[in-house]
Amino acid sequence: MSTHPVHLERRAAQRFALHLPVFLRLPRSAREASAFTQDLSARGALLYTDLPLSVGEAIELTLVMPSQITLGEDMRVRCSGTVKRVIQPVAGNTFGVAVYLEAYDYLPATETTVEASASFARISALHQQNREEKTAEELNPRIAALR
Q1: Which residues, 6+ apart, have CB-to-CB distance to 51 below 8 Å?
Q2: Is the pTM value of this prediction over 0.85?
Q3: Domains of the chain
């Protein structure tokens, strides 16, 4: 006979442990930031960011939703949602944020063939044509694709 309490799962959608880059924007202010997910489902996400957020705050996430969730192809989406929980940082300034996703906007497909790489700066330094005049988005199209 077990004395463990019965745990009722309240999630309505399957959760996937996916570590994906996310671009965050707060619609009611000019604040923007980057983040990464710990897990993701069709209805919510747990992500980590340096941007301090409050429970109940409206938020937009832009990311490439993987095929495990779309049940088709990977798709770039902008999700609107609400912050449901904030986990205070134990060390440093990275907050854990649970977001309930309320709506999706499917964004047009863009060139995403250039992958971010730890060696990108080293390789791009070999190219001399007007390097100083280029923005981060021009040097790495994936940054622009997330915005």
Answers
A1: 24, 31, 33, 35, 95
A2: no
A3: 11-109 (2.40.10.220), 113-147 (no CATH)
